[in-house]
Specification:
By secondary structure, the protein is mainly α. Helix content is 73%, strand content 0%. The protein is built from ten helices and no strands. Helix 2 (20-40) packs across helix 3, helix 6 crosses helix 9 and helix 8 (128-152) crosses helix 9 (158-179). It is elongated and about 60 Å long.
């Protein structure tokens, strides 16, 4: 017996829009859903509420997305793409001082203020589809950092540089996600401590024995 695409991949959209109007409609749906999730939380955001807020019928919404999980996954993918763009833009000027601090600040701001990010990614461990996306993002970031670190850490052997390149995004991501759960003043202090931690670690790696 064959399985339909929707049944096999319940978190995938029903259609991949190619026309500008359809792309705009999907982006509007995802933006509206992210705002609702930020306001009401994931559990209290329903497909019906997303349809109403998007000024469309529920049947029309289902033509784009089979369920709420597919919408959440699509929003999460947009988050990953935006963060990857941030990293790519700043890798060429990355250093152990102001460049690194600035990148951490950008990520911290995104984690805290991007609609839906905190609510969606705080539950990553309970959503297998998001765990896979999170793992993919980790290795994507690690590869980019590994390449950039050849100039920053030229004396570090290849195997250790790869471990460092995995450790840094995972550690920073975990701490920055924790910061989103704290009051803003505590979160700011935690981010500053993260900068000290990362800078001290990288400086120790750059020092020849």
């Amino acid at each position: 017996m064959t399985t339909s695409h929707t049944e096999a991949h319940p978190t995938q959209p029903r259609r991949n829009p190619r026309q500008a109007r359809s792309i705009e409609r999907v982006n509007a749906i995802l933006g509206t859903a992210a705002e609702l999730i930020s306001e009401k939380g994931i559990d209290n955001t329903t497909m019906s509420a997303i349809a109403r807020a998007s000024n469309m019928s529920l049947a029309s919404l289902y033509r784009y997305f089979p369920n709420k999980s597919a919408i959440i996954h699509a929003i999460a993918e947009r988050h990953v793409e935006q963060l990857d763009q941030l990293l790519r833009e700043h890798l060429p000027v990355l250093d152990f001082e102001s460049g690194l601090d600035h990148l951490i600040d950008l990520y911290a701001r995104f984690y805290r203020h991007e609609p839906g990010y905190k609510e969606i990614w705080s539950g990553v461990e309970g959503m297998p589809e998001l765990r896979a996306l999170d793992q993919r993002e980790l290795f994507m970031n690690a590869r980019e950092l590994h390449e950039a670190s050849q100039q920053l850490l030229p004396d570090l052997d290849e195997k250790r540089r790869w471990l460092v390149s995995m450790l840094l995004p995972r550690t920073c991501g975990s701490i920055l996600r924790l910061a989103t759960t704290l009051p803003e003043d505590q979160a700011s202090s935690l981010v500053e401590e993260l900068k000290v931690l990362v800078r001290t670690y990288l400086t120790s790696l750059s020092q020849k024995p």
